[in-house]
């Protein structure tokens, strides 16, 4: 693609910022242009892909669920089925089967009570709703790219993330989970852009590393303040739009 002189480029350089991992802007490279004429006339670039749990939304599993079951996290991890939640996230089983398989020993538990516990624990991480609002106000295309089961609907019902992003890329819909490279390629193919036209944000370095390896820009989430700085370094406008 022919690049304009003022276009932004993202190189394939991998940088560990402890804990941030991201792809540094490279305005000298001609490998991939985020502002190439033919694409940028059709949609605003880059496209922003956000993990949800512990990136946008507090994850109750680590904070609240052990208390719900009356056991420490270590004990919970030892007695729960190692694959049940993963299968639920991939949409391979429904919540009734999750309830049957959740514990290795098959013990019963209050499924609706667990859902209520999760619902109560969902909240925006500090500063993230405001950051999403600013990005959406600048007309950036934003999508969730997340490993989560059908219970993402509970998050949406409570927090209304769809005011800022689409839920297009959930593991329960695709049947794939990060960091499966095929999941990332599926996302890019659905969007109809090159990987370098996307910036992916996630709190797990392994997931960010995979994004970078397939050619996306990658940012490892620490908090809203550091993410805003990293996005600014990549040329993302975070100024308050004129009304």
UniProtKB/TrEMBL annotation:
It comes from Arabidopsis thaliana x Arabidopsis arenosa. The lineage of its organism: Eukaryota, Viridiplantae, Streptophyta, Embryophyta, Tracheophyta. Keywords: Hydrolase. This is HAD hydrolase subfamily IA. One of its GO terms (molecular function) is hydrolase activity. InterPro entries: HAD-SF_hydro_IA. The keyword Glycoprotein does not apply. PANTHER family: ALPHA-D-GLUCOSE 1-PHOSPHATE PHOSPHATASE (PTHR43611), FLAVIN MONONUCLEOTIDE HYDROLASE 1, CHLOROPLATIC (PTHR43611:SF3). Pfam families: Hydrolase.
